[in-house]
């Protein structure tokens, strides 16, 4: 399968805070990692509330002697992953996957526009370095709430110079996606990583500019959404059972724990393997996937329970039937 992982053990060798809510963690795998594409991430196996779970973190550039560098934002709406990562100390042992890339970048073009929102800057350092080595025409836009949160800024300035544009919203310097995309050469490629709202706005602006959808490459983090993260209930159509989905747990995990098996793969809202039918909504669904189109999300007939949430009660058909076992 596309998202199948190979795993190895690793040791935490260094930790430092890049910002009040962003921590850099350096890992040394027990065995050498194969070469990976710029923009790759690793999956990390964690024990959260006694349950094994997996989280994904982008690799930040290239480290010497096979070390891997990631940065973890301590999220207010964390389902436990960022808290578990922040609890690590030098010497800790964790299981990690081999690097994986979900960016489908055409490296043969001449003009590129990189866009990072917040912690979405982490894969961009490696991508920017690779494009610089091939002498591509490149501009990078980095959107943050404040200069204080602009981690990796110094490294990006050293690499890109005035090709880096910083947009700090507390100074009124918001990124204008419409103007940015319309100013690009006709065959330019845009590469984006950021929260779901940024991605949705970028997809719309890219389409409005008349550009090919395949020339917008993106990755997002599934914890982001339109609505605040809160507990909600999921009702299973076949049995009528109601399951509470806590604030710090995914709908997918809650269904599986209750015995209603839902198959899944990427657990990032990107592959659509876990998509289930929605029979009714008493409240509102917060679609946090990037698999469905805007029209499909508006229809509320399916959702990806690995990342999407709701407010109120959502009735689903998991296709699981106990009498089939």
Share in β-strands: 25-35%
Rg on CA atoms, Å = 20 Å
Q: From N to C, what is the helix and strand string?
A: EEEEEHEEHEHEHEHEEEHEHEE
Helix vs. strand class = alpha/beta
Domains, number:
3
CATH level-4 homologous superfamily of the largest domain = Nucleotide-binding domain of ferredoxin-NADP reductase (FNR) module
DSSP helical segment count = 7
Mean pLDDT: 90
- Main beta-sheet annotation: 6 strands, antiparallel
| CATH top-level class of the largest domain | Alpha Beta
Described by its quaternary structure, the protein is single chain
Alpha-carbon distance between the two ends: 25 Å
Provide the CATH architecture of the largest domain: 3-Layer(aba) Sandwich
Explain what this protein looks like in three dimensions.
- This protein is an alpha/beta fold.
- It has three domains: 7-97, Elongation Factor Tu (Ef-tu), domain 3 (Beta Barrel); 111-220, Rossmann fold (3-Layer(aba) Sandwich), CATH 3.40.50; 232-324, Ubiquitin-like (UB roll), CATH 3.10.20.30.
- It contains seven helices and 16 strands.
- It has a six-stranded antiparallel sheet with strand order 4-3-6-1-2-5.
- Helix 2 packs parallel to helix 3 (153-160).
- The longest helix is centred in the middle third of the chain and has 13 residues, at 196-208.
- The protein is globular.
Q: Summary?
A:
The chain has 325 residues and is α/β, with parallel strands linked by helices.
Keywords, separated by commas or semicolons:
Elongation Factor Tu (Ef-tu), domain 3, six-stranded antiparallel β-sheet, alpha/beta, 3 domains, Rossmann fold, 17% helix, 16 strands
